[in-house]
Amino acid sequence: MQWVQYILYADTWWYTIFFFYTNILFLLSAVGMGMWIALDSKISSKHNIIIWILGIISFGYLVGVNFIDDFKSVFHFYWISGDYNFLTFPYSALIVLIALNVLPAQLNLKGLKSWKEKFQKAIREISSSTYHILLVQILWFSIWYHYKSSIHTGFDDNPLNYIWFYPLNLLIGFVGGYLWYRFDQYWIPKSREVPIWALLYYILTLSSSIFYVSWFFGQFVVFWKYPIPDVFYPV
Predict the structure, then answer these.
(1) 178: domain range?
(2) What is the pTM for the complete model shown?
(3) Which residues, in sequence order, are CB contacts of 75 under 8 Å at separation 6+?
């Protein structure tokens, strides 16, 4: 029913921006950079020169957005002036590239073989559940933003007063995602054995797909009705 909410309460073009911010297509540049690094993760490779160039540009952009007054007016378009767009992702991609080459591939814990095995098993489990963790984070943040509008307006101006919010996000995302992953691991084998489970699984999947299409259509309608102004920040 989110699309109904957009239609009823979107009295300004502000909600049009959500059409981009909550659309997975808006994040495809980040997906593309991840795939690019996956092809060749060597830090000295010519293949990754573009990551270095874009990473430096991205770092400069982030500095400008966070520390320079009226920096957003340079772009004139509000929807590419925040911290979730193609100008911010290369910085994270560069950090990942450096980490892949600096951090050891094998954990060296002499005399602690059992701890090493447990640690590696935990990492494998978390790695396998990253998709579920992402989905839980999306759900959690969508609920938070619905009631608080944004993290900054939900608290006061002192970051130390809401530093607890960050470990809370990690706890909810990782624990919820991992539990969902384990449930999926149990659900899928059961659905193959019991027909009613398989039917229920397909019904839930179809319902989720219909809901998402309706939600996306609602955002498109608002985008068409309330276009973003050409110039939001006058020079």
Answers:
(1) 113-234
(2) 0.55
(3) 81
